[in-house]
Write a structure and sequence with these properties.
Elements lengths: L2 H13 L5 H8 L3 H13 L22 E5 L5 E5 L3 H10 L1
Antiparallel strand pairs: 1-2
């Protein structure tokens, strides 16, 4: 296995944990800066359309029909008018 494939495997494993990058890299015996470099490199190489967001749920939502809620991976939640799709699109691209 080459280095990039090995690091990609570690990055995917990291995403399934609740650990910080520093704790994870210490547990795996690799330097934090090395892990962080590969984490960012592989994240930036994601194919278009793979943003890490979850699919939009339209049934059973507690958000009123006239609003949509954007929840970023860091936990920040924003409610925006559902009719303003350009604003919604812009907020999604910010992350």
């Amino acid at each position: 296995m080459n280095l990039q494939a090995e690091m990609a495997t570690l990055v995917e494993e990291f995403k399934t944990t609740d650990l910080t990058q520093k704790s994870f890299s210490e547990q795996k015996g690799i330097g934090f800066h090395k892990f962080n470099y590969w984490y960012r490199k592989l994240r930036d190489e994601q194919p278009a359309g793979t943003t890490g967001f979850l699919p939009v749920r339209t049934q059973g939502s507690s958000v009123p029909a006239e609003a949509m809620e954007v929840v970023y991976p860091n936990g920040v939640k924003l409610r925006v008018p559902a009719r303003d799709l350009s604003l919604l699109s812009g907020l999604i691209r910010l992350y």
